[in-house]
Amino acid sequence: MPGAVSIRGLRGVGVLLTLMILLSPGAARGQTEQVQDPERPSLLANLAKGLVTDPTTYAPSVLLYESMHLDWVSSQPFFHNGFIEGNPRYTVTGLPHDVPIGYGEGNRRILRDALANLPMALSHNAANRMIERMLIDRYPNHPGLIRSLGWIERLSFASYMSYRLSADHFRQWRANDRLAGQYGYH
């Protein structure tokens, strides 16, 4: 598709930018050994706190769950009226255009699918925060700028991935809702 941006292309740009930042000259430092500031939390503690409290860690999975659940719930009136499921992941046989699985099993699969995307956001945010911490160590006069850029990058990634993962399901939910109204299934 012309003009489409691929994940691989975005990764390549991210790697290139990271290398440029890491290889750029930093502030001059003395030859003395640096001592860990007792007021500053360790990298691991800072990383764990940041991952747990940052909504961008959870947003893609939460939005995927909600979009898939709305799609699934809006499909139920059709199933009760003899329609078949087009998605092979949600059919009894695993083949497209077949009898749908039960409502409860569908909910369990939706939850598993949503949780399966959580490691992607966790690893992205962990890498982002480690780079952010390294840059703050390298450029100690600009911590606010570095943290702001880190937040913007995490927010952009979470927004992009949330859209990619859930947009089709939200569209299907709205289409199901309109069609159910036309058929009188409400």
Structural class: mainly alpha
The amount of helix comes to 55-70%
**Broad shape:** elongated
How many domain modules? Answer: 1
- Which consecutive residue ranges, at least 5 long each, have pLDDT under 50? 1-5, 28-33
Q: What is the count of β-strands?
A: 0
SSE arrangement, N to C: HHHHHH
Largest sheet: none
How confident is the prediction overall: mean pLDDT? 87
Beta content: under 5%
Distance between the termini: 38 Å
Oligomeric state, counting identical vs distinct chains: single chain
Number of helices: 6
Radius of gyration: 23 Å
Describe the overall structure.
The chain is mainly alpha-helical. The chain has one domain. It is 68% helix and 0% strand. Helix 2 (43-53) packs across helix 5 (118-138) and helix 3 (59-80) runs antiparallel to helix 4 (103-116). The protein is elongated, with a radius of gyration of 23 Å. It starts with 6 loop residues before the first helix and ends with a helix. Mean pLDDT is 87; it is low at 1-5 and 28-33.
SSE blueprint and pairings:
Blueprint: H1 7-23, H2 43-53, H3 59-80, H4 103-116, H5 118-138, H6 143-183
